[in-house]
Amino acid sequence: MQIKPQTVEAVLFFNDSGICKEMLYPEFEAMLDGLVSMPAFADQQMRVAYVLVNARLQIRAAVFFYLDFNEDGSADSGWNIPLRSLAERTGRGPDLGAGPIRLACRSQCPVAWHQMHLWDPQMTQGNNHFVMLRDRIKRNQLGLLVEDEAPPPVPTERLQMVAEDTWYAADAGKEAAARQADKLEQEQRLKAAQLIKQQRQRIANLEQARELEATKLRELAAQQQARLEEEIATLRVELSRQERLAGELRDQLAAQAEGFQKTREEMSRQLRALEENSRAEAAIARERFAEELQVQVAAAVAEYQEQVTIRDVELAYRNELDTQLQEEIEQLQKRCEALTEQSGERKLEALSRIGVLFMAYHPGAGHLTIPLQDMARYQDNPLAYAAAKCGVSEEQYRQWVQHFQQPTCVASLPSGERCNMPLDKIDSPARFVIGESNCCARHRTLDRLRTGS
Do 377 and 305 lie in a common domain? Predict the structure, then answer.
């Protein structure tokens, strides 16, 4: 009995240098079930490709996805991407020898909530993931059954000459085959044009989102600059007020000096009158007046010079402050330009507005869609966030996760070791009771006795 080859499912792992591991799908399922571990992939996120291979070692479908491995090399137990369903429902991809394949990746995913777990293959010269897959499958290191491409030759004695009047039927068949080939080629061109149109639309949407984000950052920079300009204008008004006050003090000093001058002239007139009466008294009065006037003028001049000096110092300080504020404006403008280029939070908000969802998987809660306003709370304590979604406390959820991952008794034996008696797994955190669901019957009884005593 001859065994006929059929379509085979295979899984191939990629690293930075290319394909590093390949296996059949049953081996992959055994790895997901925890029967087989991969120490070489411990504590890594691997890029993986699921492919459907026909009997001639040609790829018919491909799904490019991520797979996380724990520190012990075991696969993530929460991984649950429906590879077969994605391979059947997705769109067309490149031709790898047997016509366009069915391709599922990040940019072409039929199920939106699985998009974040997929990755886009590269098609650059020298690093083409499709070429790597095609060449590795052609090597047939998995030992697949291959169907002969050419039919067995017909014996010479069985060959017969066809009548001459039927020779031209073959030409008609060739013409029909040529028309069919032209029709297929036209369909392929239409599909390629549609794919190019979709990619251009996607690029246009990304450019629009980037322009929107840049516009908002420019508006923020303009607001900050306007606020700083208002502060500078206020300082300049204060500087003008101080200059006006200094001018008034100078005018006041000039007026007082003029008053002293008038007083001096009056005193001189009185002295001249005294000179007429008595030269001696006039000389004494003159000396006394000169001394007093000199003291008063010197005191007044010293006082006003001190005030003018203080105002000059204040004006210099205002000028220096104005220079510092101008430098701060330039620094803030540079910072705004840097923020325009590197604003991760604005990018997250822009992605959220165009419909990108943030999801995380937690046992018992499944895949959680995290709103953007809850992202900070989730980052602070993912376990508490998942516990709140399940309607239980953080401690109950933590002990349930330990029980769910290892359903054994957590009680301690007299020797100090853990009991580890196998228990029935509680699938829901809400039905999990601390001290009962994670303990065997013997330790639950002992705990009740101790509680009762």
Answer: no
> Is there a domain that residue 154 lies in?
no
Domain tally, the chain: 3
Summarised one tens digit per residue, pLDDT across range 152-162 is: 554 544 544 44
Please check whether residues 324 and 377 belong to one and the same domain: no
CA distance 325 to 238: 15
Residue 88: name the closest of 142, 188, 9 by CA: 9
pLDDT digits (tens, 9 = 90+) for 286-297: 788 888 888 888
Structural domain contains residue 172: no
Give percent above pLDDT 70 in the chain. Answer: 86
Residues 334 and 234 in one domain: yes
pTM above 0.90, yes or no: no
Cα–Cα distance, 343 to 214 (Å, whole number): 10
Residue of 228, 219, 229 lying closest to 343 (CA atoms): 219
Q: Tell me: do 15 and 125 sit in the same domain.
A: yes
Cβ atoms of residues 249 and 307 within 8 Å: yes
CA distances from 112 to 39, 194, 336, 360 (A): 32, 20, 35, 14
Q: Which amino acid is at 344?
A: G
